[in-house]
Amino acid sequence: MQVLVIEDEQRVAELIQKGLQELGFQVTLAYDGEMGKKLALSKTFDLILMDLILPKINGIDLCKEIRLNYPNLPIIMLTALGTTDDKVEGFDAGANDYLVKPFDFRELHARIRALVKRNQNLNNNTFNQGFILRFADLEMNLETKLVKRNNEAINLTPKEFRLLEYMMGNAERVLSRTEIAEKVWDTFDSGTNFIDVYINYLRKKIDKNHSVKLIHTKPGMGFIFKEG
After folding, report:
1. In terms of Cα–Cα distance, which of 216, 202, 112, 211 is closest to 171?
2. pTM for this model (two decimals)
3. Does the pLDDT at position 189 exceed 70?
4. Cβ proximity of 217 and 193 under 8 Å
5. Is 205:154 a contact under the CB 8 Å cutoff?
């Protein structure tokens, strides 16, 4: 795997590089946002690790720019800023995961493994062709907001559409109610049953008349979007 590490603290960058190389990764370093951007847009990487606060181009702006060019490239933000607002800002910019410094390298490796596996599942099962998301016989047009299953149109409310979009984009991965609340509703309040209500709305529209179900409940954990 080719990994780009964008980190302005040289000691931290080199420690990450050493640890990843010992695990068999090929690692390229960049010490500011401008160099990180140049490398990210000119070479092919399987994963990017970046700091939030960077010289020349900050991590938020850099993440947004990379995401425009590579919608599915896994990005993990590494930063000392660990407040809820910081995390939301990082996720809103397009980061897939967020790790607060100082961190245990074993945790970083576990996050990388999980993210790479998730991305492989997405690439294997969901085909993104411009504005079209596809999974099994379900098709979602992100531009026209049309959804079809087995070529039959499905009418969704805006929030149902956003929920389905998020689930399709994270197929084959268990999504907790907390994560769904954060990413779809922009709230950290998952204590009520509003998520379950919307999941049921969506399930009736997506799965009700089909033998193969796509929306599944994992008791005590959340929901997963998969075939079977």
Report:
1. 216
2. 0.56
3. no
4. no
5. yes
